[in-house]
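In this supplementary section we document a worked example of the pipeline. Step one takes a protein sequence of length 136 as its only input; no multiple sequence alignment statistics are reported here. Step two produces a three-dimensional model, which step three serialises into structure tokens for compact storage. The input and output of this example are shown verbatim.
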Amino acid sequence: MKHVSLLIAGVAAAATIVALPAVASAAPKSQTTVTVDCEGTANDGPVTVGASSGTWTPAFRGHTVFVPVEFGEFHGSYTPAGGAPQYFTDPPAVQNANKAGVHERLACDYHVYGEDASGGVFQGDGSVVVAIVGKP
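The serialised model returned by step three reads:
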């Protein structure tokens, strides 16, 4: 499985759902909101991820950019409407240790949930280390 991005996470684009680490290779066509929990910081809450067809897409809140640097293991499921859940696990992945230079790094957890047009449901949990660029 391939990580599509922390932050494209979340929502299914079609019957072959995509998400933050992804099950499939397509990407959502519009922006997605994902809630992150960066324990002990003021950076908890929703972040917005723009559409992307690639991996490691940054997320935004106000003037702050969350640049994903490293993903932990991701556990997810997709349940087609009227069907049985299909479970999967994506392994951890690290991009570039020097990505985003000397900006502060935060470890965050996230939960994603989405429904596709046919009523299928995608959900999952993971962790990510992000570089924080900008101020709230």
